[in-house]
From TrEMBL:
Signal sequence annotation: 1-20
Pfam family, one: DUF3106
The protein's name in its UniProt record: DUF3106 domain-containing protein
Chain intervals with Basic and acidic residues compositional bias: 73-90, 146-155
Keyword Isomerase: no
Disordered, as annotated region: 67-90, 140-176
This protein's UniProt keywords: Signal
Matching InterPro entries: DUF3106 (IPR021455)
UniProt keyword Signal present: yes
Amino acid sequence: MNAIRLLPIVLLSAALSANAQQAPSANLPAWDQLSDAQRAELVAPLRDRWNRSPEDRAHMLERAQRWRSMSPADRKDAERGMRRWERMDPAKRAQMQVLFEKTRDMPPQQRRETFALFRALLPLDAAGRKALLQQWKAMTPAQRDAWVDAHEPPRRGPGPKHGPGPGPDDHGPDDD
């Protein structure tokens, strides 16, 4: 039940991050200094979503717990990924959702290969995609490992990399 109380904190941190661009952080009060009305206003969207979607509650709770266990650097990477996701056009977002669903339960090495291949296929035309896929199918496991190592994007910082990473057009002014 304590984890449910953490959900508003996660939302508050996201809300304060957005507000930090609009107001100096020195003017923003700590959670304990917020009035009951301010807390209710911040929590209302979460409460509505929680009540509206009982089937999503376990997932919401798990995400809140995962967020609390993240280091500040991992949180920054997650926020960067969320901003990148919000800027994606609907077609690319749909591609990413399909990729995520297909790779969710894959072993880590297979997921790494899939993401590397996906990133390499994105900028290619149909003929280029076909050629790369034929080349991929002809590779031995050792050749695939070497290919993935050669085509992996540079890491942004410490910690494991999740998801497909940046695409060729996913960089924006607020990605730093």
